[in-house]
Amino acid sequence: ENTRQQIINLLEEANEQYISGQQISNCLQISRTAVWKHIKELEKDGYKIEAVAKKGYKILEAPNKLSANTIQWGLHTNWLGKHVIHKTSIPSTQTLAQKLAFEGADHGTVVIADEQTAGKGRLNRAWFSPNQGIWMSIILRPSFLPLQASQLTLLTATILAKSVEEVTGLTPSIKWPNDLLIQDRKVAGILTEMQSEHDHIQYLIIGIGMNVNQNEKDFPEELHSKATSIQIESGKEWDMRIIIQAVLQHFEKQYDHYLQKGFSTVKEIWEEYGYKIGEVVTLRTTQEEKQVTLIGLQEDGSLLIEDSGTRHPLYSGEIIW
Ligand code: BTX
């Protein structure tokens, strides 16, 4: 598996040029027959590889399915997604990521599954995760304070919004704190979980769920009015790798930017995509339901609302839409 990944990396670095079997064999210290066998395995995995006598090999196309290899092929990041763990079916990428993080997995490790059988939302809610979506968890080991974790959820929401917009042309809005909506229906959700002690974060796991290629009929009855997918909204099917790579590339860039420059850019972008900012909405808290105006984000990740003339931050509660 590892040798195959190295071969893919070499082919990719060759940047549209051919790379000879001899070069690969020299670089990886394996025989040319071994190189040839690995190439055959990659073809079985769905790669289209051109082999030209006296020139060598070139990747023409990666298979249209998710694997650690296909996600990494063409992914331009420095630290995010250098380790990808892909499963076809798993209870929850979040649970596996926690286990791996506990066992010492690196900052930037990505766990992704084609299907989750027990996907998790916030507050123990279930997250419906059939085959046609993106279900992934990113393991981070930040050196900032635990209280900054909520800023990271907001940051992730802006990254998802930007990636969807860039790849598909659809413009989602972000419903505070962490839902991505298109035409008032939920297309993606974020679940941030962390392990910390005192003022130190041991690891933080950002779970991202995005409905991509589902049709209306793929959703259970109770989600029909609430959920949508990129396919439903755009009328066509998408290569999920392109969206995953866009998310990972934006994530790495924006995360590093956030560490250097702080929350202000995140706040600006978030408010651009913010759902019903400046409008009156119904807010449900544990005590009551009331009409408030959404003003914008606060530095600490809370939502600034105006309620009968006075402004105050909201830390929990749900905007009803
Ligand atoms: P949430 O608690 O904000 O949203 C959960 C609610 O959303 C559910 O109660 C249901 O009404 C609705 N819902 C369930 N499934 C879907 C869906 N596929 N599309 C739209 N609406 C839905 C949001 O939680 C956080 C979701 C994170 C999911 C990722 S996937 C990768 C990672 N692994 C994992 O188990 N969870 C995260």
Describe what this molecule looks like in 3D.
- This protein is α+β, with helices and mostly antiparallel strands.
- It contains nine helices and 14 strands.
- The chain folds into three domains: 2-61, Arc Repressor Mutant, subunit A, CATH 1.10.10; 68-273, BirA Bifunctional Protein, domain 2 (2-Layer Sandwich); 280-320, SH3 type barrels (Roll).
- The chain is 33% helix and 29% strand.
- The strands form three sheets. The protein has a seven-stranded mixed beta sheet with strand order 3-4-5-9-8-7-6, with helices on both faces.
- Strand 11 (289-297) and strand 12 form a beta hairpin.
- Helix 2 packs across helix 3, helix 6 crosses helix 8 and helix 6 crosses helix 9 (264-273).
- The radius of gyration is 22 Å and the shape is elongated.
- Residues 92-94, 116, 119-123, 125, 127-129, 135-137, 179, 186, 189-191, 207-209, 211, 223, 226-227 line the site of ligand BTX.
Name a few traits of the molecule.
33% helix, BirA Bifunctional Protein, domain 2, 9 helices, Arc Repressor Mutant, subunit A, 321 residues, elongated, five-stranded antiparallel beta sheet, seven-stranded mixed beta sheet, SH3 type barrels, binds ligand BTX, alpha+beta
What class do helices, strands and sheet pairing give? alpha+beta
> What is the percentage of strand-forming residues?
25-35%
Write the element-wise H/E pattern from the N-terminal end onward.
HHHEEHEHEEHEEEEHHHEEEEE
Query: What is the level-2 CATH architecture name of the largest domain?
Result: 2-Layer Sandwich
Which ligands, by name, code or SMILES, are bound? ligand BTX
Q: Note the gap between the termini.
A: 47 Å
* Poorly predicted regions: none
Sum up the overall morphology in one term.
Answer: elongated
Helix count from the secondary structure assignment: 9
Which CATH top level class of the largest domain fits?
Alpha Beta
Major sheet attributes: 7 strands, mixed
Domains, number: 3
Enter the CATH topology name of the largest domain.
BirA Bifunctional Protein, domain 2
